[in-house]
Design a protein that fits this description.
The complex is a heterodimer of chains A (136) and B (586).
Chain A: E1 3-6, H1 18-28, E2 39-42, E3 50-53, H2 62-66, E4 72-74, E5 80-82, H3 92-96, E6 103-105, E7 110-112, H4 119-123, E8 130-133
Chain B: E1 7-13, E2 18-24, H1 33-44, E3 58-61, E4 75-80, E5 87-92, H2 96-103, E6 107-111, E7 118-122, E8 127-131, H3 140-150, E9 158-161, H4 164-167, E10 175-177, E11 181-183, H5 188-194, E12 197-202, H6 213-229, H7 234-237, H8 244-250, H9 272-278, E13 280-284, E14 294-304, E15 308-316, H10 318-323, H11 333-346, H12 350-366, H13 371-374, H14 383-395, H15 399-404, H16 408-415, E16 423-424, E17 427-428, H17 436-444, H18 455-461, H19 467-486, H20 499-508, H21 515-535, H22 548-551, H23 561-585
Parallel strand pairs in B: 1-6, 7-12
Antiparallel strand pairs in B: 1-2, 3-4, 3-6, 4-5, 7-8, 9-10, 9-12, 10-11, 13-14, 14-15, 16-17
Classes of the chains: A alpha+beta (136), B alpha+beta (586).
Bound molecules: iron/sulfur cluster (3 copies).
């Protein structure tokens, strides 16, 4: 069964950003955590709780629906896969995703889309993140 | 910079609202952090002008491993200390290092003075000088909130700022970094204040491509494993540094009531264990650290009759519990947290504030100062009166508070009480009365901090106390720590980052240094700092230790004054000799 990323234990989060550093490095070959597909932030100042913005793996992905070039294709289990060569960097997917999980990589002129690869899950020291098996 | 052979320095001139960027190949051999920051201070300082002159520089730097390896989390600041008049250095965690890295800089040098209160916004795309007039006079929490609301980038930015103490140039005012971290010691808050600089916000999305992902990530994972799966760092995550309270208390090493005692009858009531059980609500991390050693404690306060409570959360650690707890005779965790909150909001250094107040308590009792001076009934254990006094320090309400706002050294000059002023090398003492190596170490350390060379650790682990061994340890450890701090590795991870590990990490990102390079670096930094100090008129000739430290037993019993003086003399001679050799080699 395919797996998707879930961030359902964020109360345990330390705010170490290791998940983001890992995603930026492994998936985007970059040290800048702005390139990460998972985004951890506080709800407003460090005194508040941490939250993670992640792709929620829609079965009917709005991002793919609006893409004019079919650069985003449905992935088994939910969410999408990006075909870089087809992307024209129109940014339509960014606003179509209502959970705010997609943002642009302006250096490479493509959107940063979560692959549900689980690299962040393996490096989180507090088990805030998990991979969940889902039906296709 | 990662993947280059230069250090990218951002120069900011507040007077003319201008910035300049230089790519400095010559600084590359100082690696980063303390190495680069000390060198930039040496270059930019004006040795004949006072510390708070607007021409004096303020430097912040990070290192090549910053953020991209586990627990490499610190940013380093250097400046001329308004507190000691000599070399000033301070380290802070939080998000600042990440933000500077992401903005694409290795170091920032700030000079000049803004015409009006200003806050700086620095990103990879812009440098802006913004109006902070309305923020002048606000506490650190409020300023943080305003900037958070006005500026973009939650999650990616770092906001650093001063409180009233910094604005009023209190020489032990600090800079608050991202709510729970600080550039604490030696008065960097006053340096901000003297430049009309209320705050800085830094963030960026600079492209930082990885040259050899395989090597880098392999090394990253190895270190990550060591950090999270061995017990090298377990203590910092569990009780945190406050676990020291019980340990030190049991061996007569916990400074209590202005060091009238080295063991506290209420130590159990304010121990790390008690904090964890009664007050701990969460732990958080600096960016890039999987440990999470920042312990947040909560207390509630009745602000009105009829069960009207507010709850307040502040971070605590060993030094704070010592300086604002045992040293002032405070008996409960709730009260310690309440004092911490006051110090926090005012933007003061916790250690210096506690030590100054402990001295004032005794000076009042002995009649060196009066109730008219203190405007509060300072008495060991009396939390509410200390809280009043803290606000008075930040506000500098009268002549007495003005004087103690310039530190204990100034206070003693005017009011006396030198015998019980807990000063080492002009800086207020840290929370260890362990013995000779600590006393010597804090006195001679580059910034008069217990962290310079960890003398306290020597005292606690030594089997016997040989003079030569103490001197060796203090010098060797300080040079070794200069390497760690030039890389901005958190000192809590020092067991993880032994030399082979450091070299592996450097090599994996294309910095092909060797063990000899590291040794050379440690030496260069050690003596560069000394050179700066000498140029500023520093000398330990005729140095006198406060009487009190010989009257109260340490782990090794009462210290012998002659022995400590002898150690100091030996240290000076040895370092002078080495310094001569180093200078000749330059
Ligand atoms: S940015 Fe690329 S992936 Fe997103 S909608 Fe436009 S073409 Fe499709
Ligand atoms: S990116 Fe957003 S819209 Fe697209 S699948 Fe994920 S959550 Fe749904
Ligand atoms: S790695 Fe885990 S603990 Fe760290 S920020 Fe990400 S979710 Fe939070």
């Amino acid at each position: 069964m395919p797996k998707v990323l879930r961030a359902d234990n964020m109360n345990k989060c330390l705010g170490c950003f290791t998940c983001m550093l890992t995603c930026a490095a492994v998936n985007h070959n970059n040290h800048n955590l702005a390139k990460s597909s998972i985004k951890v932030k506080t709800r407003g100042g460090l005194q508040s709780k941490f939250a993670a913005t992640v792709c929620v793996a829609c079965k009917e992905p709005a991002c793919a629906e609006v893409c004019p070039t079919n650069a985003l294709v449905k992935r088994p289990g939910g969410g999408v896969r990006l075909i870089e060569e087809k992307c024209i960097a129109c940014e339509k997917c960014v606003s179509a995703c209502i959970v705010g999980s997609i943002h642009m990589d302006y250096d490479r002129k493509i959107p940063i889309v979560c692959k549900h690869c689980g690299a962040c899950v393996r490096m989180c020291p507090h088990n805030c993140l998990s991979m969940e098996e889902v039906r296709e | 910079m990662i993947g280059t052979d230069f250090i990218r320095v951002l120069y900011i001139d507040l007077t003319n609202k201008k910035a300049d960027i230089q790519e400095r190949k010559d600084l590359y051999k100082y690696l980063g952090g303390v190495g680069v920051a000390a060198k930039l201070l040496e270059e930019n300082m004006k040795k004949d002008l006072p510390p708070l002159d607007e021409q004096q520089p303020l430097i912040i730097s990070i290192g090549p491993l910053s953020t991209i390896f586990p627990v490499v989390t610190k940013a380093v600041a250097t400046f001329i200390s308004p507190h000691t008049g000599e070399y000033g250095e301070s380290h802070a965690g939080g998000r600042l290092a990440m933000a500077i890295r992401n903005a694409g800089y290795d170091a920032i040098v700030i000079t000049g003075k803004a015409q009006k209160p200003t806050y700086l916004v620095i990103t990879d795309k812009t440098i802006e000088f913004k109006d902070a007039r309305a923020m002048w006079g606000l506490d650190v929490e409020e300023v943080g909130r305003l900037i958070r609301e006005r500026e973009p980038g939650p999650g990616k930015r770092s906001i650093i700022r001063i409180g009233k103490a910094g604005e009023n140039l209190v020489t032990y005012s600090c800079v608050n970094v991202d709510t729970y971290r600080h550039f604490g010691r030696l008065g960097i808050g006053a340096v901000f204040g003297s430049k009309n600089l209320k705050a800085m916000m830094i963030m960026g999305e600079e492209d930082l491509p990885i040259s050899n992902l395989k090597e880098y990530f392999k090394t990253y994972q190895e270190i990550y494993k060591k950090v999270t799966q061995t017990d090298a760092m377990a203590k910092y995550h569990e009780l945190g540094t406050p676990m020291n309270i019980k340990v030190l208390n049991a061996i007569n090493s916990l400074p209590t009531k202005n060091l009238l005692q080295s063991n506290f009858e209420h130590a159990d009531d304010i121990s790390g264990e008690t904090f964890a059980e009664k007050n701990l609500i969460r732990k958080v991390s600096c960016v890039g650290c999987p440990i999470g050693c920042i312990h947040i404690g909560q207390f509630r306060r009745e602000f009105d009759k009829g069960y009207e409570y507010e709850s307040i959360a502040v971070s605590y650690d060993h030094e704070l519990i010592y300086a604002l707890g045992s040293l002032l005779g405070i008996k409960t965790t709730d009260e310690v947290l309440q004092i911490i909150e006051e110090v926090e909001l005012a933007g003061l250094d916790a250690i210096s504030t506690g030590v100054v107040l402990a001295w004032a308590t005794e000076a009042l009792k002995k009649g060196l100062i009066t109730r008219e001076d203190t405007l509060a009934d300072l008495e060991f254990g009396n939390t509410m009166e200390y809280i009043k006094a803290i606000d008075n320090i930040a506000e500098r309400v009268n002549e007495f508070y003005y004087t103690i706002g310039n530190g204990l050294k100034e206070a003693v000059k005017k009011y006396g009480g030198e015998e019980f002023a807990l000063l080492y090398g002009g800086n207020e003492m840290a929370g260890y009365h362990t013995g000779y190596a600590f006393a010597l170490g804090q006195t001679v350390g580059a910034r008069h901090s217990h962290l310079d060379n960890a003398g306290y650790a020597y005292d606690q682990s030594a089997k016997e106390l040989k003079d030569e061994d103490i001197i060796d340890y203090v010098i060797k450890e300080e040079k070794e720590r200069a390497i760690l701090t030039s890389l901005c590795i958190c000192l809590f991870a020092r067991k993880v980052y032994d030399r082979p590990t450091i070299l592996k990490a450097l090599n994996s990102i294309g910095i092909n240094w060797t063990d000899e390079d590291l040794t050379r670096l440690g030496n260069d930094i050690f003596f560069t700092k000394l050179k700066i100090k000498k140029e500023l008129g520093y000398s330990l000739e005729n140095y006198k230790f406060p009487k009190r430290i010989f009257e109260t037993p340490t782990l090794w019993g009462k210290m012998d004054e002659q022995k400590l003086n002898r150690l100091l003399k030996m240290y000076i001679e040895r370092v002078e000799r080495e310094y001569e050799n180093w200078s000749r080699g330059k």
